[in-house]
Amino acid sequence: MSNRPQLNPEKTELLWCSTNRRQHRLPTTTLKIGSTTVVPVPSVRDLGICVDSDLVMRIRVCQTASCCFAALRQLRGIRHLVSATVFQSLVAALVLCRLDYVSGTLVSLPAYLNRRLQSVQNAATRLIFRLRRFDHTTGALVSFHWLRVPERIVFKIAVQTYRAMHGDVPQYLRQFTSIADTP
Fold this sequence. Notes:
This protein is mainly α. Helices cover 50% and strands 8% of the residues.
């Protein structure tokens, strides 16, 4: 028991994964591991990512959108105090980086969740360009060379794949690229 990892009962969570239709079939009883009792939860948080039991990422998208909209409300208050380029950098640093964080987990999102994340990016664009609520943002996105959210997710995956194929990844990932090179 000394020098071995131990279970931290305050931080241990149990998540049963299943489709939404089969959630009612999952056990709701507690699980006893050693002297610790673990209760099943509907979602867990790991590395800042909330994963829900049906793996749709609904909770993560809602939390990301909520944090981004809160940051945009705070940025709106200082928009007149800084230059346009500084303001654009602030929006990119405080909002867009949250949209891009571990975006590989957002592959194949349902359309309604993609729209939710896209609404964050549209709001950020409207704030930078001082557009009205219902003005289109396509031209502004093009002028910034910003991809829409679904394309950003695919682009991030493509960049990671390219880096893996060309050896620009950590050593522990290189073993997987050699598998792809064999015929």
